[in-house]
Design goal:
284 residues, alpha/beta, Rossmann fold, 21% strand
């Protein structure tokens, strides 16, 4: 095992790929956690070792070509979840986890927190936000009814897989956020729209593999799609309802301006590296 890892580490280092990816790929093949690779000395027969080496080499080559490790293993970690992912759905990012903290904090601090709250996730993708909010709210005794809106049929397939995996009563609506849920009014809306400007260069593994529809927000400033999400949130929220949206670190002022007409109590929130990546507001 150690020889396989050392060889993979060397290849990845030359190609500026994180060493942890080599561990994740080997753990995936062995059906164990990454930590267990170093915690136990696995004994394999010669033929099993050769088979493992061959399969591992294939996975390493896929990664060297730029395919994301999450697509290779079919799994992405998000907070306490292990989500199924693959081509056609955006890989959930760790920074998006902070939205869940904000939402749970808001629900837990509400004067009427004992009452069930309706929550809509716009652009739900793999279901990371919907499922995390639903499961963590339940752990705190908070009642939520969740609707996940996703217009991509490919992404919605992964969304439904993950909802089924965690056996949650989340309603899935496969429709554009602009037209979804007419006449519905919710207590809370979360959104992680496509927001990257069309001409911004992306890492090869993102540009070549992840769905552009989930990444690009439009020309110049990338605000074309985020504005549609903001307008949709305004339409869907009750008066006083809470909205939080992820965005590009360069878009915080643009987002505030776009929200000003329909929202108040607008606040920008930083990620763990101090970048302005989220904005929350209340519906006027």
């Amino acid at each position: 095992m150690k020889e396989l890892l050392r060889a993979a580490f060397s290849q990845f280092e030359k190609n500026q790929i994180a060493a942890v990816d080599a561990e994740l790929l080997l753990a995936h093949l062995l059906g164990i956690s990454r930590k267990q690779i170093h915690a136990q000395d696995l004994e394999l027969a010669d033929e099993d070792r050769e088979k493992l080496a061959s399969e591992y080499s294939d996975l390493i080559n896929q990664r060297l070509l730029g395919r994301p490790v999450q697509y290779i293993t079919g799994s992405a970690a998000f907070r306490y979840l292990d989500l199924e992912v693959g081509e056609g759905v955006l890989i959930p990012r760790p920074e998006s986890e902070l939205i869940v903290d904000r939402v749970i904090g808001y629900l837990n601090s509400a004067d009427d927190k004992d009452l069930a709250k309706s929550v809509i996730d716009l652009g739900a993708g793999s279901g990371a936000l919907s499922i995390a909010i639903s499961t963590e709210a339940a752990l705190k005794g908070l009642k939520v009814s969740m609707v996940a809106v996703e217009k991509s049929a490919e992404a919605a397939a992964w969304l439904n897989k993950n909802i089924a995996k965690y056996d949650l009563p989340i309603r899935v609506v496969i429709e554009d956020v602009v037209t979804a849920l007419p006449d519905v009014k919710a207590d809370l809306v979360v959104a992680n729209p496509p927001y990257i400007p069309n001409d911004e260069k992306l890492p090869i593994e993102v540009a070549n593999y992840e769905p552009e529809i989930a990444l690009r927000g439009g020309p110049v400033d990338g605000m074309q799609i985020p504005k549609l999400f903001i307008d949709s949130a305004a339409r869907l929220l009750k008066l006083g309802g809470f909205f939080i949206m992820e965005h590009h670190e360069m878009q915080s002022n643009l987002v505030k301006n776009a929200m000003a007409e329909s929202f108040n109590s607008i606040q920008t929130h930083s990620d763990l590296t101090g970048r302005d990546r989220f904005t929350s507001a209340r519906r006027k």
